[in-house]
Amino acid sequence: MHHYVPALGGYDIAKVHEFAEKNYYKLGPIYKEDLRALNAPGDFAFWLSDADDIEKVYRSGGKFPIRGGFDSLAVYRKTRPDVYKALGLLILNGKDWHTFRSKIQPVLLQPRVISNYSNSISSIADEMINVIRQSRDEKTLEIADLGPELYRYTLESIAFIALDKRLNCLSDYGTTQRNIVASVKELFHLEATLNESFLWRIIGRPYGKNWKRFMQINDEFTSMVFEFVQEKIKQLASEPVKNPEDDVSVLELFLSRPDCTPEDAVTMTMDMFYAGIDTTAHLILFTLHHLANHSDFQERVYQEIMDLSNGTGHLDSEQLSNLTFLKACIKETSRLTPVVPILMRISQEPIALSGYAIPARSFLILNHYTVHHRPDYFTDPLSFKPDRWARKSREEIKAHLFAVLPFGHGPRMCIGRRIAELETLSLLSKIIYNFKVTAKHTELPLSLKIISYPDNKMTFTFNERQR
Ligand code: HEM
């Protein structure tokens, strides 16, 4: 554990995925860390880099798999019982988690509900294409750092899906919008920074300047979302009840459930802001990086878009789901440079892994990052090869089904998966239809702050395609 002591321990916590990979080669597919000095809910962490073990852990979670994380957010939400009557999906465990998830899952994971948004997300993606055009350097056609621009797209999309509300982060990017985008980004970083603090673990609560700022931003966002939800409740009271055949928003669906309170709707929306902005932006960013570095694959994606759209570039939700080669590129991106490289479960019962007896209440660290790069699972593992996900070659290489799971697995699987996929396919298909993209960097080093962040600015050049 001493490895993690800041400055002295030698581990850079932001590079823990790289240490874990080195440790796999030194110590094997399972090794243990002593957490007793950390006041953690479990005594030991077990790092797992074998896909069979990972499968066993996912399958042994039962109805209520336990996951840790978002500890600072949990402390904050407990200070606001006026709103956070339930702590939300990111934080809850056990039966309370299951009760909350049962209200939300039928809305967010239903394909029809999310595909209803495909036209709106397509318009938001069109606005993002304009942002790209306008943000380019006039002469070089380069955008020095695409990341911050993409957060505008993912925030706008999530706000629209969750709240039925356009924030105008793309078309009318004024001071208010800039503040919202900056605060959302800061929130996630603060959560990660606060949770890394050694002292927090010892004294049992977050503290200091970062904590104050974290509470302030959370308060501001909570009030904003609460207001939107109240507005919607008023609107629903004054407008006739919609025909169930009509398009109904996620917020209306939440509010129309007898078991879902306005506070539940606020909590879920806040979770969507937390978990749905940086993640999706990074998946788009990382995929674009690989396509920009492989012009042959980029051309294949372009041809696929041209074929499916009859040259128009416009694809409906069904056509988007038929972009099989682009989907393979996204999957290969998730393997090589995952947005969520490491996941976690807390064991509820003793479990045997790689021949060892692991006690209950242990942290099981699902080290997908290392699994993704193991040469015995993937030939030429450090190369970007989307064709390995084509149905035929997948059968040939017999990729372990639990090796690459970008959205997790089982009852706790990402509840925003369908939204993330819609946003990602919609924007990437429009980018590749409109531009030939090249990248300044060939490497993509990542740092971990709950999810992966690129170490460098992501600089791309966007040349208009000639048709
Ligand atoms: C590319 C984008 C995304 C990736 C890679 C991603 C990945 C993940 C992963 C790996 C988990 C944990 C699953 C597990 O423990 O088995 C998760 C959970 C979650 N995600 Fe996502 N996610 C993405 C986008 C989104 C979006 C857009 C939303 C919001 C709508 C969202 C909301 C959530 C929530 C609320 C949870 C907690 C679910 C629960 O514990 O019941 N995610 N996500």
TrEMBL record:
Cofactor: heme
UniProt superkingdom: Eukaryota
Keywords for this protein: Heme, Iron, Metal-binding, Monooxygenase, Oxidoreductase
Any one GO MF annotation of this record: heme binding
Pfam families associated with the record: p450
Binding site for heme: 414
Family: Belongs to the cytochrome P450 family.
PANTHER family named among the record's database cross-references: CYTOCHROME P450 (PTHR24279)
Protein name (database record): Cytochrome P450
Annotated source species: Tetranychus urticae
